[in-house]
């Protein structure tokens, strides 16, 4: 049976103070660069049921952490005792016009990196801003400041951030499982503040996907197996980031030139015509990764990889998986009709050179690419 934390007897003065804080939180969040902020309760019963069904179907693949923490993910008060409300925030990360991304996806020898990973890792930036927001709240809590507790999250603990954001009114979860905002699209990061303050909550967002099926139709691997259901085992983001072993052979040709993540479902979403470009310099492309060839990346040695991915989310996959992904992309480039004969020779030479120093997992992907 699903239960939520019960509020203790609440002093009328605290409720009044929370009413006063509500518009101030909105103002402070905007000053800190968040494009939207909302507040919700901790009842995630429907989201918990959805997660349970998803796990039962093994759609999480080898992401064991999705099932590891019991109900802490869907019951905030079990993760952080005393939590009554969740402040949900969003910050845009879109670095460029979407037309440029489409163009890059059509060039077999160009590497495509999911746009969220082009700049600095967002975790530290968001958490720092959330802590600043929490301190603002504490400073203005008056006599209740000492009793104010909080914990900041940025995809760093078992938190159902998208259902919480939906309940807080930041947007609705689309058929591709990403959060969509009617005024801002879906190119944004989410963060949360768990707090024991009984703040007034916002109305949840309404779903506006309607009959649209574009994200289901465009997915290269058909990972969106039904509206609102993504089989991670088929998803290119999972295959290129989360999967530690070999990429299934039947999926490799479908990955194209995507070497870290995939944005296709967002690129075709009609609501992203309203998306805002980011104002955060830390989210802008680094190391030329928004316009770089596969062969150039494949030539990096491990020291270069570590140096040039410092502070980036990309580093988490490690050098061998980085080469694995590029090997698949180079194999797909060899199969592209528009590739010139001279490019064929360069790719085969680069792949063959890597065979000398590859481990078994990488060797398998290089040999596949050379077939």
Describe this protein's structure.
- With 371 residues, this protein is an alpha+beta fold.
- The protein folds into two domains: 12-95 and 119-195, no CATH class; 214-370, no CATH class.
- 40% of the residues lie in helices and 11% in strands.
- It has 16 helices and ten strands.
- The termini are far apart.
- The model is unreliable at 1-9 (pLDDT under 50).
- Its cofactor is cob(II)alamin; [4Fe-4S] cluster.
- It is found in: Cytoplasm.
- [4Fe-4S] cluster 1 binds at residues 209, 212, 215, 269.
- Its EC number is 1.17.99.6.
Keyword list:
371 residues; alpha+beta; 2 domains; 4-stranded antiparallel β-sheet; two-stranded parallel sheet; 16 helices
Low-confidence stretches are: 1-9
Please count the beta strands (DSSP E, at least 2 residues each).
10
- Counting structural domains, the number is 2
**Main sheet strand line-up:** 1-2-7-4
Name the helix and strand elements from N-terminus to C-terminus, one letter apiece.
Answer: HEHHHEHEHEHEEEHEEHHEHHHHHH
Backbone shape: elongated
Share of residues in helices: 25-40%
Mean pLDDT: 94
- Helical stretch count? 16
Strand content: 5-15%
Please state the oligomeric state of the protein chains shown.
Answer: single chain
Distance between the termini: 55 Å
Structural class: alpha+beta
How would you characterize the largest beta sheet? 4 strands, antiparallel
Radius of gyration: 22 Å
Cofactor: cob(II)alamin; [4Fe-4S] cluster
Family: Belongs to the QueG family.
Active site: 155
Protein name: Epoxyqueuosine reductase
């Amino acid at each position: 049976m699903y239960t939520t934390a019960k509020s203790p007897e609440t002093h009328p003065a605290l409720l009044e103070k929370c009413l006063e804080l509500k518009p101030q939180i909105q103002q402070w969040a905007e000053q800190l660069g968040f494009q939207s902020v909302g507040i919700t309760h901790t009842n995630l019963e429907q989201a918990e049921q959805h997660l349970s069904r998803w796990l039962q179907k093994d759609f999480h693949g080898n992401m064991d952490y999705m099932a590891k923490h019991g109900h802490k993910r869907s019951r905030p008060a079990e993760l952080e005792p005393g939590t009554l409300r969740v402040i949900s925030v969003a910050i845009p990360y879109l670095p460029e016009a979407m037309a440029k991304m489409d163009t890059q996806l059509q060039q077999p020898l160009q590497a495509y990196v999911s746009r969220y990973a082009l700049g600095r890792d967002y975790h530290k930036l968001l958490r720092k801003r959330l802590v600043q927001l929490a301190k603002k709240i504490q400073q203005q809590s008056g006599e209740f400041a000492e009793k104010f507790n909080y914990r900041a999250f940025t995809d760093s603990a078992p938190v159902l951030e998208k259902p919480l954001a939906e309940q807080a009114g930041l947007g609705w979860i689309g058929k591709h499982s990403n959060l969509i905002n009617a005024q801002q699209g879906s190119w944004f990061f989410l963060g949360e503040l768990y707090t024991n303050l009984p703040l007034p909550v916002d109305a949840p967002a309404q779903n506006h996907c309607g009959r649209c099926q574009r994200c289901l139709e465009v997915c290269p691997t058909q990972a969106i197996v039904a509206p609102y259901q993504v089989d991670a085992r088929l998803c290119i983001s999972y295959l290129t980031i989360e999967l530690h072993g070999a990429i299934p052979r039947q999926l490799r040709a479908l990955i194209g030139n995507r070497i870290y993540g995939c944005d296709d479902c967002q690129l075709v979403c009609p609501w992203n015509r309203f998306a805002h470009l980011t104002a955060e310099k830390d989210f802008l492309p680094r190391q030329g990764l928004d316009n770089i060839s596969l062969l150039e990346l494949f030539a990096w040695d491990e020291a270069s990889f570590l140096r040039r991915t410092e502070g980036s989310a990309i580093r988490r996959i490690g050098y061998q998986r980085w080469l694995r992904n590029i090997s698949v992309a180079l194999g797909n480039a060899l199969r592209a009709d528009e590739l010139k004969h001279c490019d064929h020779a360069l790719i085969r030479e680069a792949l063959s050179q890597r065979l000398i120093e590859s481990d078994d997992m990488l060797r398998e992907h290089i040999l596949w690419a050379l077939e």
